[in-house]
Specification:
Elements: H1 4-27, H2 31-56, H3 66-84, H4 93-113
Helix pairs in contact: 1-2
Length: 114
């Protein structure tokens, strides 16, 4: 079983293709692709990957993971709120910086939790 730091590295490595696709789509002003890629990737990972993994071998849920689920839920709700706030219906720089800050805080929390 992987520890928190190893899991974080694996998660970052598997998410890099989605990140690059989203960045390229944003540069090309193809925002639908960027947002769809992010949301679709999360749905795929949560339902298909976790579902197949739990069929192969039951997954134990550590007690400390409740915070992770709460943070994930809050980030998801914030994404949907950000998508519908404002007249242009866009996720601008300050909203993107908010998510980067949230990621940095969450990553620091994971490292501290050890």
């Amino acid at each position: 079983m992987l520890g928190n730091s190893e899991s974080t590295i694996v998660a970052a490595g598997t998410s890099l293709p989605e990140l690059v696709t989203s960045i390229v789509a944003a540069i090309r002003k193809e925002m639908d692709i960027s947002v769809g890629n992010i949301v679709g990737s999360n749905i795929f990972n949560i339902f298909l990957i976790m579902g197949v993994s739990s069929i192969i071998s039951p997954l134990t849920v550590p007690p400390g993971i409740n915070f992770d689920f709460i943070f994930l839920g809050a980030a998801t709700l914030l994404l949907f709120a950000f998508m519908f706030i404002g007249a242009k219906r866009e996720i601008g720089r300050w909203k993107g910086l908010t998510f980067l800050l949230m990621y940095a805080v969450y990553l620091a929390f994971l490292i501290k939790r050890g």
